[in-house]
Amino acid sequence: MALISLYRMNLLAEYKFHFLMVLGNIGCAFSYFITNFAFNHGMRPPVYTVYRLAIGGCVLLPFAYVIERKRLPSLTAGLLCKICLLSLSGTSLPIITFFEGMRCTSPTVAAAVNNTIPCIVFVLAVILRLESLKIRSGRGMAKVAGSVLSLAGVTIMTIYKGQPLSRFKEAPLHMEDQAIQEEWIKGSILVVVSCLSFSFSYILQAKTLKKYPGQVSLAVWMNLIGAAMSAVYAAATTKLEPSAWALGFDVRLLAILYGVSERACLLANNIYIYIYIYHQVMDEANCCLYCLSGV
Asked: Which of 65-69, 119-123, 131-135, 243-247 shows the lowest mean pLDDT across its residues?
């Protein structure tokens, strides 16, 4: 029994990062369905994005102040412009387009397309010379083959809808199918735009962290600035209707709180993995790709 317990402890220590990424993906899966359920009950994606980013920034602010206040450089105009661009490409734009696309398609398609982000980051890293590609080596061939297979699978899931699966008689979450039937291609394009924006933000974030070495503080800036940008768009699309912004003790509030908690846990998870792998392999592009597999 002692040997079995020791073996299990060693196994858990060896694959702890893999377990963390699996748990992160499970949390994301629940987030997709809860959020889509909230959209079917009146919540609009831009309003959801505003609440989620604003609450997330406020939650992370005390941690950033306590942990990183003594080692952050002063903000310059150029650095602030980079953070604003990072907030647009990494929070407001991709989140709004992703959930708009998910509402037009389905959580399954949105999640499948979202898995192409590591492939896109890999391509951008090669183009920007953040990573060298040795096509004749086994690792290079595996990266290229994995990227091609991933994109091919996403393309098939996006274009071919297939036959509906048999449903349970009593489903815990009931979602309407009208938008899925009418706006499938539009939603797929929006999710692809979200993935491209996210991928660009990861490359930009790697460069920004060299001049602003505070992961939590940067996340606070991105959330708060992204919330302000999203609020402008949400105000324009909702025309400041009180019903679009009202929250009660219902599924809308549940979706927002769950989204904030899930992203906060995922952020801590990815920062932990990022720091560990960066000190182990000192390879920025590979480190980003490894961490992105948990997003």
From this structure: 131-135
Q: What is the pLDDT of residue 97?
A: 92
pTM: 0.75
222 close to 52: Cβ distance less than 8 angstroms: no
Helices 93-104/215-238 angle, 10° precision: 50
User: What's the chain's average pLDDT?
Assistant: 75
Distances (CA, A) of 53 to 21, 41, 129, 220, 226: 22, 21, 32, 9, 7
Sign of CA dihedral 67, 70, 75, 79: negative
Helices 93-104 + 184-211 axis angle, to 10: 160
* Distances in whole angstroms, Cα of residue 295 to Cα of each of 7, 16, 243, 266: 29, 16, 32, 7
Structural domain boundaries in the chain: 105-160+200-212
Do residues 108 and 156 make contact, with C-beta atoms less than 8 angstroms apart? no
Q: What is the mean pLDDT of residues 218-226?
A: 90
Gap between the Cα atoms of 187 and 179, Å rounded: 9
Secondary structure letter of residue 89 according to DSSP:
I
Percent of the chain with pLDDT over 70: 72
Instruction: Report how far residue 184's alpha carbon sits from residue 165's, in angstroms, rounded to the nearest whole number.
Output: 17
Angle at 294 between CA 289 and CA 295, to 5 degrees: 90
The answer to whether the CB of 198 falls within 8 A of the CB of 117 is: yes
